[in-house]
Design brief:
CATH superfamily of the largest domain: Gcn5-related N-acetyltransferase (GNAT)
Number of helices: 10
CATH class of the largest domain: Alpha Beta
Radius of gyration: 19 Å
Largest sheet: 12 strands, mixed
Structural class: alpha+beta
Distance between the termini: 26 Å
Length: 279
């Protein structure tokens, strides 16, 4: 096992392409920043068998195993060590489960004290436009509407994760601004004369690579829920995504049956299972 560098990019991409939708988060980061640790901001460990790269692990704020070779997972757990610096473990459900169990077995308490474990998150995908009309109010968000979009993004994150994304460093604000600049932020604004605009629906493209994207951060203002506004809103999101990326994916918690039915009605089908361990 060793830390991968930019010289390993071709072999690493071959590994990613074995399951591009599951690996989309890491693939997107590496495509934008490169594989060198000083550019990516973290190390990616690689595990070779007989000279072939069979597994890897992104060791940043998000710990992401790629591949589920048992010996590789054990080697990653050993190398990561007892001091937990990550916010989450995420990726293929099997690999996440194996890595989390390995870290707890090897290093104990610091890895055992989780805030939440979402063990079953169906990975869903569509490569066609929905069969229903989209809501034309849903558009790409521009920088002029950064502030109301940021407010909605903070509300979504806090509701979904249970803690605020704001940490005093400004990193979340920069992340939201970057999404807007990339054309990856979508939403609908309510404009009232004499009052500040507000975003009542939002969704982002969190990752994109090789013609595929992953939708995340779907949120609708609480007072508007239950009115079936999410269906045409998400139909429009899929159409906007497919203008740039033919394949649109997302993942959802298995217990969120309402959301799963909504996505199925828009043409999404389940192709795998992810998991997330939150700290």
């Amino acid at each position: 096992m060793r830390v991968l560098d930019q010289h390993d990019i071709a072999e690493f991409e071959q590994l990613l392409r074995r399951d591009p939708l599951t690996n989309l988060f890491v693939a997107s980061r590496v495509a934008h920043l490169g594989l060198a640790p000083e550019q990516l901001g973290c190390a990616v460990y690689g595990y070779h068998v007989g000279g072939e790269l069979v597994a890897a692990c992104h060791v940043g704020a998000n710990l992401v195993p790629i591949g589920d070779d048992r010996d590789a997972i054990d080697a990653f757990a050993e190398a990561i060590g007892p001091r937990r610096r990550v916010w989450s473990i995420m990726g293929s459900a099997q690999a996440v489960r194996q890595l989390h169990q390995g870290l707890v077995a090897r290093w104990g308490d610091s890895w055992a004290r989780t805030r939440d474990v979402r063990a079953h998150q169906p990975l869903m995908v569509t490569d066609t436009d929905p069969g229903i009309e989209g809501d034309p109010a849903i558009q790409r968000i521009g920088l002029a509407d950064y502030e109301p979009y940021l407010d909605a993004a903070i509300a979504m994150y806090t509701e979904e994760v249970g803690v605020t994304p704001l940490d005093g460093s400004g990193s979340y604000q920069r992340y939201v601004r970057m999404l807007i600049q990339m054309g990856h932020a979508m939403g609908a604004l309510q404009r009232v004369r004499g009052q500040a605009s507000r975003v009542w629906f939002k969704s982002d493209i969190g990752s994109a690579w090789s013609g595929c994207c992953q939708v995340q951060g779907v949120w609708i203002s609480p007072e508007l829920r239950g009115r079936r506004l999410s269906i045409p809103a998400m139909a429009q999101v899929v159409r906007l995504c497919r203008q740039r990326y033919p394949v649109v994916s997302l993942y959802v918690n298995d217990y969120n049956t309402r959301a799963r039915r909504l996505y199925q009605g828009l043409g999404f089908r389940t192709v795998g299972e992810l998991a997330t361990v939150l700290y």
